[in-house]
């Protein structure tokens, strides 16, 4: 009896780019791995779908899109006599494919609540090293590039910089799924204009307007989508729920939860003790665990946990006020007394129902410039090369102060 070989050079249909091909069998096997498949169950934009109902795309979508754009970037650079070997091309594709593999459930919410002291980038690296063991060292070069240790500087710039493949995909993808057209950048045009000068990634002069549009689109997407006040409110509420659950777990109070989430609720996990066991449990933890648990917590006897959980499930989100200056103590105290009276919140719980923080956006960082290559082979920072008056102002961080509190239960 003959066994048929699996076709590993599959083609996927992506709603943004159309047909996306998997370049080789190693990348196919990495995509098929359960670590990577988990990304199908982690939303790209957390609870943003409570504001933009279409924003249900996942980290899996984004990673596949990044891999596709990286293949295009490699192809373009090769046509411009930038030598990239097959091993380097595979390593670049793997590095960008796995750059977000360490994201927890609902993307950033877990980082601010129950998995403390370790970032998603550090967890991504742990996953990559574990996969490297399973794939007999075939990811070593990808890891070197991901860590920024490879001798060719522009490789790490393709993975992480102000005009990297990651941003080129998520802006276009998030714009598509939210319906916010201001973020619809021309990633094809930007990649076509890429070149390398003195081992640095540059954009050719004729692509300058596309870079300007990219920076403005990034600013608009931040205020209109990523830092939209209702998105901030929903994210804040989710973090508060998980923090309260963690506090109750520390007190030894029984919480209905999935086994994967329970592990992180009842253990203090930091960078020091994030070992193989923690990584294994993390690889089974996704959005489904969190939402299943929150649905159960709606009926918990704890006043704070049950109220906050119901607010998420029923979409009765915190009200939110944004302003350019910090909120005064007088204003906060007034809000607290109004909340206590209106919703009968006991004094000891009031701080769970009012939350102060800041949101900041810097569309362009002049310390890590996007460089423009002119016809004479000279390189200039986009701010100096452009005649667009707004680009300099885009480099100034804009900070807004916000205050969240319930409008109703």
Structure explained in plain terms:
Helices cover 48% and strands 11% of the residues. The mean pLDDT is 92. The termini are far apart. Helix 3 runs antiparallel to helix 4, helix 4 packs across helix 6 and helix 8 packs across helix 10. It has a four-stranded mixed beta sheet with strand order 3-4-7-8. Strands 5-9-6 form a three-stranded antiparallel beta sheet.
- SSE series: EEHHHHHHHHHEEHHHHHHEHEEEHHE
- Spans of at least 5 consecutive residues whose pLDDT stays below 50 are none
Shape: globular
The secondary structure category is alpha+beta
Widest beta sheet: strand line-up: 3-4-7-8
Number of strands: 9
Radius of gyration: 23 Å
How are the secondary structure elements laid out?
Elements: E1 11-14, E2 18-21, H1 25-32, H2 34-37, H3 59-79, H4 86-97, H5 120-134, H6 140-146, H7 153-159, H8 165-178, H9 187-192, E3 194-197, E4 200-204, H10 208-226, H11 229-250, H12 259-266, H13 276-282, H14 287-297, H15 303-313, E5 318-323, H16 329-343, E6 355-361, E7 371-373, E8 379-381, H17 382-385, H18 390-394, E9 398-406
Parallel strand pairs: 4-7
Antiparallel strand pairs: 1-2, 3-4, 5-9, 6-9, 7-8
Helix pairs in contact: 3-4, 3-8, 4-6, 8-10, 11-15
């Amino acid at each position: 009896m003959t066994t048929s070989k699996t076709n590993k050079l599959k083609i996927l249909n992506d709603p943004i780019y159309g047909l996306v091909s998997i370049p080789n069998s190693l990348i196919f096997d990495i995509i098929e791995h359960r670590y990577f498949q988990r990304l199908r169950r982690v939303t790209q934009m957390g609870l943003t779908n409570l504001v933009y109902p279409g924003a249900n795309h996942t980290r899996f979508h984004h990673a596949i899109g990044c891999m596709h754009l990286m293949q295009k970037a490699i192809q373009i650079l090769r046509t411009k006599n930038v030598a990239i070997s097959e091993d380097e091309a595979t390593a670049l594709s793997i590095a960008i494919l796995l750059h977000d593999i360490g994201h927890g459930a609902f993307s950033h919410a877990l980082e601010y609540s129950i998995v403390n002291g370790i970032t998603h980038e550090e967890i991504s690296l742990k996953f990559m090293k574990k996969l490297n063991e399973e794939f007999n060292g075939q990811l070593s070069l990808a890891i070197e590039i991901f860590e920024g240790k490879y001798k060719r500087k522009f490789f790490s710039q393709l993975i992480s910089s102000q005009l990297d493949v990651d941003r080129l995909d998520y802006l276009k993808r998030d714009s598509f799924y939210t319906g916010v057209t201001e973020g619809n950048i021309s990633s094809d045009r930007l990649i076509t204009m890429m070149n390398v000068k003195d081992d640095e990634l540059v954009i050719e002069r004729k692509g300058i307007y596309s870079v300007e549009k990219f920076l403005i689109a990034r600013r608009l997407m931040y205020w209109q989508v990523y830092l939209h006040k209702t998105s901030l409110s929903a994210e804040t509420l989710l973090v508060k729920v998980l923090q309260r659950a963690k506090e109750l777990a520390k007190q030894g109070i029984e919480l209905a939860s999935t086994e994967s989430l329970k592990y992180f609720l009842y253990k203090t996990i930091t960078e020091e003790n994030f070992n193989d066991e923690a990584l294994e449990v993390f690889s089974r933890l996704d959005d489904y665990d969190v939402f299943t648990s929150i649905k159960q917590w709606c009926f918990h006897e704890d006043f704070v946990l049950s109220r906050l959980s119901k607010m998420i499930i029923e979409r009765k989100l915190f009200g939110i006020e944004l302003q350019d200056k910090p909120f005064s103590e007088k204003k906060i105290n007034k809000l607290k007394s109004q909340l206590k009276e209106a919703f009968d919140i006991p004094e000891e719980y009031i701080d769970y129902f009012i939350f102060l923080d800041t949101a900041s956006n810097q569309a362009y960082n002049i310390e890590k410039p996007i460089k423009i290559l002119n016809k004479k082979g000279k390189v200039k920072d986009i701010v100096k090369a452009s005649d667009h008056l707004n680009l300099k102002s885009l480099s100034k961080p804009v900070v807004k102060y916000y205050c969240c509190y319930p409008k109703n239960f």
